[in-house]
Hints:
Radius of gyration: 20 Å
Number of helices: 13
Strand content: 15-25%
Bound molecules: pyridoxal-5'-phosphate, zinc ion
Amino acid sequence: MLGRFWLECPECTSSCEDRAGALSCEEHMGSSLLRTVYQSRQIAFRDDMPGMFRYIDWLPTDKPINVNSRPVTYRSEGLARELGLENLFISFNGYWPEVGASMETCTFKELEAPPTVARYLSSRGGTMVLASAGNTARAFAYTCSKAHVPVWMVVPDCGLESLWLPFEAGEGVRLVSMSRGNDYTDAIKLADRIASLEGFYPEGGARNVARRDGMGVVLLNAVEEIGVLPDHYFQAVGSGVGAIAAWEANLRLIGDGRFGDNKIALHLSQNLPFTPMVDAWTHGRREIALDQERARSLVQGTYSSVLTNRMPPYSIRGGVYDALSDTGGKMYGVTERNARNGMSLFESVEGIDIVSAAGVAVASLVQAVESRMVGSGDIILLNVTGGGEGRFRGDREPIVKEPDVTVDGPDADVEALARELGGA
Length: 424
Ligand SMILES: *Cc1c(COP(=O)(O)O)cnc(C)c1O
Ligand SMILES: [Zn+2]
């Protein structure tokens, strides 16, 4: 007997309950992403739930945690006029009190953390381990502090400045930093090794259905506001989890039946020079061919560091390649200069600062308009994945979480580390 939701493998269509917070099908570990199936085919918008748990019908947990995190969708005037678009909607994920946006960690990673913490609170014990380029760690440090859930976060040197919070991090929040020269992909390797120790469990990244369904709330919120499924979705991607999530939410919303039945074209962007998914997609390849050493140096030269995952879930069944294929998607490479222009354009016409990744997305929308990939009357959803950081820092005094320990590389002695930091 399955409960309110269950997990399904797209490859063998086997279903299982979510008791142990599974990350993959036992038969298809490396090759497929599990998906959540919800018993409610139609979603109810719940006024009695906190923040994003308004959409709990389609989140893999029975118990919400008490946070305000949620996106705000609004119809653009300034940017829409600038680009000659009649139906441009913005999903604002960040801090902007005037429009009701109250994400205190200022990016849409704050949609991944609450359902993940809620999911594992009932299905796993021990200490969660995750890797982050910075923004994910900030969102999880924030949420885990509020929910009193122990977490270890592995962050490369370049991400440390992102580790600010509106309050002192909770007791159970530990930060393992990696010295200069290590990147996000090195952090993933080290986090995997720590997570395999007794008493720890992996957060799961793209394989964690709570993370994807949490990101899916961007589209649920947009459709609640707009009333129908949009024609186009714009987002800057590093791993592409947000894009996979938008696609999965799109399929669920088609199943709901009240919002139309179109597949939303995904318009995804990366920051030059590090554009592995753009390169693979433009060459029609399911595989990403990367020389890891060359990639490492390109990563160092990329302005928007949150977009620099060397091992994104692109080829995997149910991943970015499938999402682009199914929706007739497009990919864009954006220069640093255009990303910066996107940031300042947005701030001047919409009235709030946005992060570099969101600047990349704005620049991709400009490209799409110029090359007529979108029509002036099309319904367009622009995911501003982070914003209002400047505004937040002006209003509040963030506290930086200092590393508890710094290691040299992904092969560090994790058992010694666990002893040093007090274990799980
Ligand atoms: C993580 C992040 C992205 C990329 O998101 P993915 O969908 O996981 O690739 C974009 N913008 C911001 C601000 C982010 O923090
Ligand atoms: Zn399977």
